[in-house]
């Protein structure tokens, strides 16, 4: 049973609630991000665009979707240890926090989906699930209880190191971008920290993630009979290159494949299949036909 919380929905947004320093930092970075995106057309270069696209591919599709989400959060596949660590490092540069924090929040989301202990559910308001949850770390700790569900990662020195040195890696990337391409590369290719970002690449990456948390629990279709509000949203599915098939994911959260139909674009899945062919990925999990039948609406009607 979900534990009642002391906060009210009104307090989640208004200034009456307690603001931590990290919350204020996040808000400030979001404001800077808006300014950076507005300034980006005035600092456009083709090289800056290509830097942003390559980094977006590495950090979102491989780092967040394949590594943080499917590999670390759900153990949907096994990678060689060196590749696991490399892909997790890519994910760190998406500026959505370190692997342990990201995985912890996501595991709590699946454990308490669309209840009052879900870290980011539309049941507490659409804009809360979209972005406001990132500005209330005290509320997240009260809901979820901290990093008590990522002991598998806490046991590994590598992930503890990334947690402790998170900001240093982002600063190092920012310096490299600036030294390599000046202000245009910094604006188009760099990102902020603490789950919020500035720069074109990071802004788009965060909004893709925010849309999955909110839009895909509000609008779309439900081919599978799950006990939550998850939905497949074809717009997010194609724009996010696979993560928008969210009802598929909640029905079979263990699956390395989210786009279960041939027409459902799922770029990380294609990468996983290539890695499996090369022998770099093993124990790749997908739902069986029997498992699909248990969540089918047609099967539910027969019973």
From TrEMBL:
One of its GO terms (biological process) is very long-chain fatty acid biosynthetic process. Pfam families: FA_desaturase. GO terms for cellular component: endoplasmic reticulum membrane. Pathway: Lipid metabolism. Its cofactor is Fe(2+). It is a multi-pass membrane protein. Keywords: Fatty acid biosynthesis, Fatty acid metabolism, Iron, Lipid biosynthesis, Lipid metabolism, Membrane, Oxidoreductase, Transmembrane, Transmembrane helix. InterPro entries: Acyl-CoA_DS, FA_desaturase_dom. Belongs to the fatty acid desaturase type 1 family. This is Fatty acid desaturase domain-containing protein. It comes from Papaver nudicaule (Iceland poppy).
């Amino acid at each position: 049973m979900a534990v009642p919380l002391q906060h009210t929905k009104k307090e989640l947004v208004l200034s009456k609630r307690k603001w931590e320093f990290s919350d204020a930092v996040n808000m400030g970075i979001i404001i800077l991000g808006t300014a950076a995106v507005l300034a980006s057309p005035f600092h456009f270069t083709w090289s800056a665009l290509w830097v942003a696209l390559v980094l977006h591919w590495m950090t979102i599709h491989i780092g967040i979707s394949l590594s943080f989400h499917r590999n670390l959060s759900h153990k949907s596949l096994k990678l060689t240890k060196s590749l696991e660590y490399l892909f997790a490092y890519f994910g760190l540069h998406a500026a959505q926090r370190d692997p342990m924090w990201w995985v912890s929040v996501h595991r709590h989301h699946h454990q308490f989906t669309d209840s009052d202990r879900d870290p980011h559910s539309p049941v507490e308001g659409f804009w809360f699930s979209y972005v406001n949850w990132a500005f209330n770390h005290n509320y997240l700790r009260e809901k979820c209880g901290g990093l008590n569900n990522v002991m598998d990662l806490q046991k590994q020195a590598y992930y503890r190191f990334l947690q402790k040195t998170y900001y240093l890696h982002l600063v190092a990337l920012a310096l490299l971008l600036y030294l390599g391409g000046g202000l245009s590369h910094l604006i188009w290719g760099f990102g902020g920290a603490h789950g919020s970002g500035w720069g074109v690449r990071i802004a788009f990456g965060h909004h893709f993630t925010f849309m999955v948390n909110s839009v895909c629990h509000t609008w779309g279709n439900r081919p599978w009979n799950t006990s939550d509000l998850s939905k497949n949203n074809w717009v997010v599915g194609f724009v996010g290159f696979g993560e928008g098939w969210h009802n598929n994911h909640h029905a079979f959260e263990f699956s390395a494949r989210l786009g279960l139909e041939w027409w459902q674009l799922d770029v990380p899945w294609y990468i996983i299949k290539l890695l499996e062919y090369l022998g770099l990925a093993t124990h790749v999990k997908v739902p069986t036909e029997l498992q699909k039948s248990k969540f089918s609406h047609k099967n539910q009607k027969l019973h």
